[in-house]
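Structure ticket #2291
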Amino acid sequence: MENLPKEAHAKRLNESFRLWLTTASSDVFPASLLQTSIKMTKDPPRGVKSNLVQIYNSLQGSKAEKDFFYSCQKQEDWRKLFLSLGFFHAVIRERKRYGAVGWNIKYDFNMSDFKISMKQLHHMLNSYTEVPFQALIYLTGECYYGGRVTDDWDRRTLLTLLKDFYNPYASEGAYSFSAIKEFQIPQIDMDIPSAIAFSEEVRFL
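Resolution: structure written out below.
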């Protein structure tokens, strides 16, 4: 702050000059600077549809992300279970909107939980002849997402939900997670563009 020009020298600044700052919460960051700034925030997506669209759009962020998606040796299983994991991620994030009816304690599930679970799924599909659902459920439900869960009933709920999304029927396609027709694994080739188109058609929430 002491290096910022005083009023006498401020006129030397170019009128088109802009300074972008990124900061975490801090007690020592000057409040006056925040009060005179334009603040921008990126809110997490709301709704199952928005969460799914975010997941698939993130795959288009770089060539490495795309290559990773298409590098799985069992593409048919991978694409269906990837979508299934995406639905699971969206559903457990949205449960916190319902207070104690959703979770006893609010949890900050985020994209890092999804990404590590996605990489584990990718690795398991490439490493085993048959999909090891029990191992996937344990690692995803107890370690990755479950690592944030502190309440025993919430952990039980999370594992019960996960079993609806990680099971042999989900990898076969045309599998519905609920009576809502959009909540299903469709019988189409779920490459990234078609998966985005499908996600954008999800009308519920």
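Closing remark: The first strand starts at residue 175 and ends at 176.
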